[in-house]
Design a protein that fits this description.
Chain lengths: 126, 260
């Protein structure tokens, strides 16, 4: 342990870490997304080829990860706005975080079929 | 004292008996201290100390035991030793606490207890850090009463409600537990940090003070309140229970609404 130990922060610190990580992931997605969409202007045939690869199960799984990142970033973003603008926000930040996590789990369960349904049919047959 | 059945005397003697028997309450704990001496090595190292101690004693007592009975070279700050002066903020088991307000029994004495200097400030020796940047940020927010016009001939009166407005932020003891728990401050020491903002809040929301605009301008700086990422580490770390993040949020909102 050369640089001392990790600071043992609580919910607030870890939600901030998760917010950062999901933010960077979403940035990388947007970067790729702008590139592949711009491809349609260069060569529509190549664009079709690239988008066809997105229908594979591996990319479906990545899409599910994207849904996870965006949902957390969006819901926790609302919590951060409430922390800054609502007078009682800082006092209820933990309760708001657990609400965010609860909603996130619900929405992630709801996203299983719409996002992974196609991949399941490809893998296991319809 | 001549009364035949003095309850006070009985109680006293039984308490004294209990005090004399404390040896049986002693447990053996391991204190894992982060030690650094720039005159010996450029690297800091972990040193374990095993010592018998009453679990109702504090981490500061354990540090004293080490310094007085095991290794006199151990260096740490402490002044009042009772949670008022704010000298002995250290990182105990990964969290910022005052060594003088942390009981051994409250931090799982079965495992080694890690004691490190607070983060984000230069370590000078062992648990002693350079507090100058911390106090400079404190001075920069002008933590004193600013008024205009002539001095009144009597005291400046204030209603109980007006006093209540900033009551929470008057409790600060400048121990730096909050500022050195802040991830933003670790990465950029230019950030004013929670403690300076708390002490600005104490005057911004004081009805007798007229320097609020100036202080808000200082904290509107790129290294001011907007660097706060609401990680709540400061609120969790404050040994006085100040709602630090709430105070920072109130300063942010005062900057937007210009109402304070």
């Amino acid at each position: 342990m050369p640089a001392g130990t990790l600071y043992r922060g609580r919910e607030g610190m870890w939600s901030w870490v998760a917010h950062r990580v999901t933010g960077v992931l979403i940035f990388f997605f947007l970067f790729v997304h702008v590139l592949d969409t711009a491809l349609v202007r260069v060569s529509p045939e190549d664009y079709d080829k690239v988008v066809a690869t997105y229908k594979t199960p591996i990319v479906s799984l990545l899409e599910y990860g994207l849904v996870a990142a965006i949902l957390f970033h969006a819901l926790n973003g609302l919590r951060i706005i409430a922390v800054d603008y609502w007078t009682q926000g800082p006092r209820y930040q933990k309760q708001m975080l657990w609400t965010v996590v609860g909603l996130w789990i619900l929405l992630m369960l709801g996203a299983i079929y719409p996002v992974l349904g196609h991949a399941a049919r490809v893998l296991f047959g319809s | 004292m001549s009364t035949p059945n003095s309850p006070t005397l009985d109680k006293h003697s039984s308490a004294l008996d209990a005090a004399e028997n404390t040896a049986s309450h002693l447990i053996t704990v391991t204190l894992r201290v982060r030690r650094f001496n720039p005159e010996v090595s450029a690297e800091a190292e972990w040193v374990d100390y095993r010592l018998p101690i009453d679990p109702k004693e504090r981490v500061l007592d354990a540090l004293h035991k080490i310094k007085w009975e095991i290794d006199g070279t151990l260096t740490f700050r402490r002044s009042c030793a009772h949670g008022v002066c704010g000298s002995d903020a250290v990182r105990i088991n990964g969290r910022n606490r005052l060594a003088c307000k942390t009981l051994i029994k409250d931090i799982n004495p079965e495992k080694p207890i890690t004691v490190e200097p607070i983060k984000g400030l230069t370590v000078l020796k062992d648990l002693v850090v350079d507090m100058d940047p911390f106090f400079q940020a404190y001075r920069d927010v002008m933590p004193f009463l600013i008024t205009k016009g002539n001095e009144p001939t009597r005291e400046r009166l204030q209603s109980a409600e007006d006093r209540e407005r900033f009551d929470d932020t008057t409790k600060c003891i400048l121990c730096a537990a909050c500022t050195s728990s802040c991830p933003v401050f670790w990465n950029d020491g230019q950030y004013f940090g929670p403690a300076a903002i708390v002490n600005a809040h104490r005057f911004i929301f004081d009805s007798r003070d007229e320097g609020g605009e100036q202080r808000l301008e200082i904290l509107n700086d790129k290294d001011g309140v907007w660097r706060c990422r609401t990680t709540f580490n400061c609120t969790d770390a404050c040994p006085r229970g100040i709602e630090v993040t709430k105070a920072i949020q109130e300063v942010k909102r005062a900057l937007i609404t210009r109402r304070f």
